[in-house]
């Protein structure tokens, strides 16, 4: 074996987790290589280095959500005195996509540079394990080479999954892997699925002026606080997004003019409708199928997610796995990054710190944003019992919403879930503008074990939405959530 190709660490997957681990390991003096290869979507969409978040996830999603938010503020602008704003001005999809895609390309370039500067050897090749120390790399022309490594990290993330009841579905629908790179506006869109990817994408498509329907099999935002999930649905409905509840597509067909005819059945009655585009957001599968993991002895669950211990070790001692491809981990960029950095520290700097997934903050970028930390009300009741917790709640209206009276004063909501015995706040929920910015700081306090009394003794910043969280006193089940203005 060529000595040049023997590494201390070989990382498979140049997404959030893989890049972070590779860079940190190289910084600590390890000899590191990373392979990243993007298999095009079934419709042929492909992208560069950086993984899901950068190319087909958080980054384009947030930029498009922002574009939609700008449109929604046109009414407020007029009422706040801006004279040339047109409330019915049209959105230019091509312009938005061009700018978003250009930004992503800059990030792709930046990541390549970081690897080079950080002394990480980058292979734009598809990796597969031959044994616990040998990796086969194939480039897009089919050229093969092998390398060896003392340690291997699998950070291959996931890809969208498709419902399995529709013939030829992969050619008839788009997924989030295509949406952010579409060169034409998708037009009237049916979104299938009801979790956060579905609601976020449906939300911004409607916000930029498209007709949108969302097909919901059961509940909105499984795993999130259901009281808030329903409030998000209500707000989206009030804005004009149609929810088709309690069904899945029964058939999707291409029409002669290349639109999509969708049929579905509710309570025995058949419905059909023509859409320009069907966006499927029905979950993701981990991208582990072709890595040869079983043969090498890496254990997975039945969905192909890798089983790992708390120190990110798989069933093969020198093979590690992090991020979306691991069972039981939150599918979030910052957790994958932190996990990768900590792993590098443990491997190459004698560190012992493990990744903690407790009180990780996250935000759903629906038209009304939702930030949360810790337990949902349902999970808190399940874990501790209804009589062991107190839920505080408050409905509020952002001051800025008073320019434009069409804003519903009932929409924004704050909820704290508190353990009765030690008064620790174990659930934080905020539904309102700028949820990501509002929620992040509270995550520090939650990690430190903040109590409700410490929330109460904190002086708010006035006038803000965030101050609602340090002023909430109404107890759910006893007091109405409605709050008087100051
Ligand atoms: P990924 O980032 O998916 O990277 C895996 C990489 O491995 C990919 O580049 C892939 O091409 C490559 N690869 C796979 N197999 C091979 C192979 N055999 N050889 C070589 N390379 C391979 N998270 C947030 O925190 N905030 C958000 O707002 C957010 N929004 C999202 C919106 C959408 C639409 C989606 C889909 C996800 C979103 N996420 C968000 C989740 C976030 O993107 C993921 O949790 C994160 O990217 C996971 O990182 P990872 O390193 O595990 O994998
Ligand atoms: P999730 O969180 O796995 O949710 C999948 C959604 O799709 C959920 O609403 C499901 O409904 C629905 N679903 C699943 N299968 C079907 C079929 N066959 N037909 C209709 N609807 C279906 O997936 P996301 O893509 O939103 O997000 C995955 C991760 O990616 C997420 O954690 C982010 O970090 C990024 P159900 O509730 O099961 O009835």
Automatic annotation (TrEMBL):
Keywords: Disulfide bond, FAD, Flavoprotein, NADP, Oxidoreductase, Redox-active center. GO terms for biological process: cell redox homeostasis; cellular response to oxidative stress; glutathione metabolic process. Its EC number is 1.8.1.9. Residues 7-339 form the FAD/NAD(P)-binding domain. GO terms for cellular component: cytosol; mitochondrion. It is an enzyme of class 1 (oxidoreductase). InterPro entries: FAD/NAD-binding_dom, GSHR/TRXR-like, Pyr_nuc-diS_OxRdtase, Pyr_nucl-diS_OxRdtase_dimer, Pyr_OxRdtase_I_AS, Thioredoxin/glutathione_Rdtase. It comes from the Eukaryota. Residues 360-471 form the Pyridine nucleotide-disulphide oxidoreductase dimerisation domain. Transmembrane segments: none annotated. PROSITE patterns: PROKAR_LIPOPROTEIN (PS51257), PYRIDINE_REDOX_1 (PS00076). GO terms for molecular function: flavin adenine dinucleotide binding; glutathione-disulfide reductase (NADPH) activity; thioredoxin-disulfide reductase (NADPH) activity. Its cofactor is FAD. Catalyzes the transfer of electrons from NADPH to thioredoxins TRX1, TRX2 and TRX3, which in turn act as reductants of disulfide containing proteins. Able to reduce nitroglutathione (GSNO), a compound involved in the transport of nitric oxide (NO); however, TRX1 is more efficient in reducing GSNO. Has no catalytic activity towards oxidized glutathione (GSSG). NCBIfam families: TGR. Belongs to the class-I pyridine nucleotide-disulfide oxidoreductase family. This is Thioredoxin reductase. It comes from Paramecium octaurelia.
């Amino acid at each position: 074996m060529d000595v040049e190709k023997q590494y201390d660490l070989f990382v498979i997957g140049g997404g959030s987790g893989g890049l972070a681990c590779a860079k940190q390991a190289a910084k600590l003096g390890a000899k590191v290589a990373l392979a990243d290869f993007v298999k095009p979507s079934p419709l042929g969409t492909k992208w560069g280095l950086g993984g899901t978040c950068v190319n087909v996830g958080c980054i384009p999603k947030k930029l498009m959500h922002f574009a939609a938010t700008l449109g929604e503020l046109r009414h407020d602008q007029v009422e706040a005195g801006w004279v040339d704003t047109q409330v019915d001005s049209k959105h230019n999809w091509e312009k938005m996509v061009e700018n978003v895609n250009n930004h992503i390309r800059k990030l792709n370039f930046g990541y390549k540079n970081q690897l080079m500067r950080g002394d990480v050897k980058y292979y734009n090749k598809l990796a597969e394990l031959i044994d616990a120390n040998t990796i086969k790399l194939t480039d897009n022309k089919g050229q093969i080479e092998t390398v060896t490594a003392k340690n291997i990290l699998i950070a291959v993330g996931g890809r969208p999954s498709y419902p399995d009841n529709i013939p030829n579905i992969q050619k008839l629908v788009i997924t989030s892997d295509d949406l952010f790179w579409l060169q034409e506006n998708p037009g009237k869109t049916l979104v299938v699925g009801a979790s956060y990817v579905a609601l976020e994408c449906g939300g911004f498509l409607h916000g930029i002026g498209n007709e949108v329907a969302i097909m919901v099999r059961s509940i909105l935002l499984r795993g999130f606080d259901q009281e808030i999930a329903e409030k998000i649905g209500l707000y989206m409905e009030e804005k004009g997004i149609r929810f088709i509840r309690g069904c899945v597509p029964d058939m999707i067909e291409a029409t002669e003019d290349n639109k999509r005819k969708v049929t579905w059945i509710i309570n025995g009655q058949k419905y059909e409708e023509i859409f320009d585009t069907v966006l499927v957001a029905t979950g993701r599968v981990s991208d582990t199928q072709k890595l040869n993991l079983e043969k090498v002895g890496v254990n997975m669950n039945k969905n192909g997610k890798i089983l790992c211990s708390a120190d990110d070790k798989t069933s093969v001692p020198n093979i590690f796995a992090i991020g979306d491809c691991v069972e039981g981990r939150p599918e979030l960029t910052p957790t994958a990054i932190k996990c990768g950095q900590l792993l590098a520290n443990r491997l190459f700097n004698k560190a012992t710190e493990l990744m903690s997934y407790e009180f990780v903050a996250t935000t759903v970028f629906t038209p009304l944003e939702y930030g949360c930390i810790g337990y949902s009300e349902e999970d808190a009741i399940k874990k501790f019992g209804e009589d062991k917790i107190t839920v505080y709640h408050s409905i509020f209206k952002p001051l800025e919403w008073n320019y434009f009276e069409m804003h519903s004063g009932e929409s924004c909501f704050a909820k704290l879930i508190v353990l009765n015995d030690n008064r620790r706040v174990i659930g934080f929920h905020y539904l309102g503008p700028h949820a990501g910015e509002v929620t992040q700081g509270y995550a520090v306090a939650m990690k430190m074990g903040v109590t409700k009394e410490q929330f109460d003794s904190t002086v708010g910043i006035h006038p803000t939405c965030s101050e609602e969280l340090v002023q909430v006193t109404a107890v759910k089940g006893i007091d109405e959530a409605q709050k008087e203005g100051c």
